[in-house]
Amino acid sequence: MRTLREFDDRLLSPYTGWTRNHWAALADHLLLSARRYASDTHARISFPGPAGGYGSDVDGLEGFARTFLAAGFRVAGESGRDPHGLMDWYAQGLAAGTDPHSPERWVRLDEHGQPKVEAASLALVLHLTRPWLWDRLDPRVQEQVVDYLTPAIGSDYPPINWIWFQIVVEQFLLSVGGPARPGDVQEGARGEGRAGPSAGLRADMRRDIDAGLAFTDGFARENGWYADGAERAYDHYSGWALQFYPVIWTEMAAGDPAADSRRAVYLERLERYLRDAVHLVGADGSPLIQGRSLTYRFAAATPFWTGAYAGLTTPAPGLLRRAASGIVRHFAEHGAPDDDGVLTLGWHHPWRPIAQTYSGPGSPYWAAKGMFGLALPADHPVWTAVEEPLPAETGDFRLALPAPGWLVSGTRADGIVRVLNHGTDHSHPGTNLTDSPLYARLGYSTATSPVLAGEHAAEPLDQSAAILDEHGLPSHRTGFDTLLVDRLPTGTLLGASRWQAHWVTPDPTTLDHGSGRSGEVRLGPHLTVLSAVRGPWELRLIRLTPAGPITGPLRIGGWPLPAQAPSTDDLSLSAQPPYSSGASNGALHSLVIPGPGLDLSEVTAAEDSAPLAPWTLIPWCATSTPAQPEKWYEAAIYLGGQLPEQPPTITWNGPTAHLTWPDDTTDTVDTSPFS
Question: What global pTM score does this model have?
Answer without folding.
Answer: 0.95
